[in-house]
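Hi support team,

I've been running sequence recovery on a batch of backbones for a student project. Most finish fine, but this one hangs at about 90% for roughly twenty minutes before it completes. I'm not sure whether the input is malformed or the queue is just slow. I've pasted the structure tokens below so you can try to reproduce it. Let me know if you need the job ID as well.

Thanks,
M.K.
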């Protein structure tokens, strides 16, 4: 688990990008995580989907440099 990442509980549906998004802090910088694979028709992601997305974001951040634009795109 990456202790440098703090995820916020601010899930929202981004209508422009048409995906669910949430934010986090990485080394003091704000990042946004966009999840394209989640059901856009749902009122909100399930607890299991939230945990899966946070885990996927942690894995992505371990394998890649933090994004310059502050947006992580998960499929």
């Amino acid at each position: 688990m990456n202790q440098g990442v703090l995820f916020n509980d601010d899930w929202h549906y981004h209508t422009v990008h048409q995906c669910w998004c949430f934010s986090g802090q990485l080394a003091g910088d704000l990042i946004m995580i966009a999840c394209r694979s989640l059901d856009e028709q749902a009122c909100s992601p399930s607890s299991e989907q939230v945990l899966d997305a946070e885990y996927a974001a942690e894995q992505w951040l371990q394998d890649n440099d933090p994004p310059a634009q502050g947006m992580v795109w998960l499929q």
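--
Follow-up from support: It reproduced on our side and the slowdown came from queue contention, not your input. The chain has a mean pLDDT of 87. No action needed from you.
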